[in-house]
Every structure is written in C-alpha cells, then in structure tokens.
Amino acid sequence: MSSISEYAPESLNHDDKLYAYLDESKSGGGEIVCSAGYLFEGPKARQFRIEWQEFLDSKRIKFFHATDDIRRPDAEEIFSTLASLTKRTAFHGFVNFLHPKALKAIDKSIRGYVGSSFSMATLGCMNIMGKRAKREGKSVVYFIENGNRFDGELRDFLRQIKNDRRQIELYALAAADTVDKREVIQLQAADLFAWSFSRSHYRGRWEEKLKELIRDKTLFHSMTTYNPTMLAMLNSFHGMQSNRKKFDY
Fold it and tell me: Which of 104, 152, 144 is nearest to 124 (CA)?
C-alpha cells in the first residue's frame, strides 16, 4: 500500500489512478452530516491547482473556505469562479449524507462497527467513489480534509482498510489520508460542494451555489445515503470497528 506522500500535488501523473478530494459538512441544526467531493484525473487535478491558485493570488486569499468567504463582498465572483473551474476539470462529483439521529436508533451491540457520523459519511462517500473508479479500471488516491474531531477514528478505519485486501478492492484504494486544504488545494472544490449541500438542507431549498454546480449537467454528480444498520453489518463482516468506546455523534 502506497503512502499518500507519494502523491504530492506535483506528482499527479499516474494514468492508472484517479484522485479523490473529500470534505464534510453538517447542516446548521445538525440534522444531517455529509461527505462530498470529486474524482479528478491527474492532468485535470494539476490544471485545477494552477488556475485556482492564480485566482486566489489575484484576490489575495490564502485559501477558500465557504463558511467564511460567503460574507465577502465579492463572494458571488469567488463562488462562481470555483464552480466553473470545478465543472471544467473534475471527473465526477459525489455526496453521501446521513441523519445522525439514526445512529442513536441502532442497537448498542453493533454501534461500534459504524463509528461516528463523520466516519460513516466519509467511508460511504469513498465507497461510491471506489465503485466509479473500478468502472474505469483505476484505483483511487483519497485526500480527506482534516480538522474534524473524529479524524483519529477515521484514520484508524483507513488503517484497517489498508490491512485487508478485500477492503482495498472494495474501495479501489491506492492510498488515503487526512490532509490540510491549504496544502491540497483541490479540497477547496469539495468544501464548496459539501457546504452547498448541507446549507441547502438547512434552508429547505437548493442553494444557488449548488444549483450552479449541477444545473447545466456539465459535470455528473451522484448522491447516496447509507442505512447505519446495514453498514454495521457490512463492517462487521469485514472486521471493521471503531477505536472509540463512547459515541455522542
């Protein structure tokens, strides 16, 4: 199993791989948690990095963060530019969401096989990304935004996947780790998608930024939601279990 460090932004030149960038978000009231992101081919991931960095530099922005940048007077230009660039460069968009309250309803005897809502949403999104990549005969390098309080749990799930050939095949896994969106700039496209999706749920209508990403069908997007009990059974079958003992979310 390769290390994520082998796939630095300057080295996205592996024709047999796709590059996944995932971020998570939750609605304002916490009713849903989602993991969203994009698959890129290597040359397009490089193109995104170059063009988006040039735009950020022109605006004197260190990095894009939707929650903060929506307050800027030039927010419309920033969001539209990012949406347009993502549609021109990404291969496929994905979002997986769940209702955290559903986790409280599953039996305590299998709760540990699911883990936190963050891990469940992220692994679910990785699963559908892996399925898409296998249709292309390619494996996936997963870059996942860090900073979530359940990062340690997710990294332990990733360790378990890397140690099981069945799981590697399931996720079409080449490498995976949590990273900083300031260092892996393509994560900022995932930030826009995740934020737009959760904000749409909270406001009860499709966010204009989300409609801009998907309405003209330039880039295909997939949406899924996983049943916690079914996922617990699947993880149990593969011997996957959270390293946490208590669960509050």
Answer: 144
**Interior CA angle at 30 toward 25 and 36, to 5°?**
20
> What's the average model confidence in pLDDT over 86-97?
95
Q: What domains are defined for the chain? A: 14-238 (3.30.420.10)
* Helix 42-59 with 187-203: angle, nearest 10 deg: 80
At 96, give phi and psi (nearest 5°). Answer: -125, 130
Higher pLDDT, 232 or 15: 232
The reported pTM is: 0.91
Cβ pair 188, 52 in contact under 8 A: yes
The greatest distance separating any two alpha carbons of the chain, rounded to the nearest whole angstrom, comes to 54
Q: Residue 10 — very low, low, confident or very high, per pLDDT cuts 50/70/90?
A: low
Of the candidates 164, 171, 130, 148, the residue with the CA atom closest to the CA atom of residue 240: 164
Measured in degrees and rounded to the nearest 5, phi and psi for residue 240 equal -90, 130
DSSP conformational letter for 204: T
- The neighbour count for residue 128, using CB atoms within 10 Å, is 17
pLDDT tens-place string over residues 182-225? 999 999 999 999 998 888 775 555 666 666 767 666 788 888 99
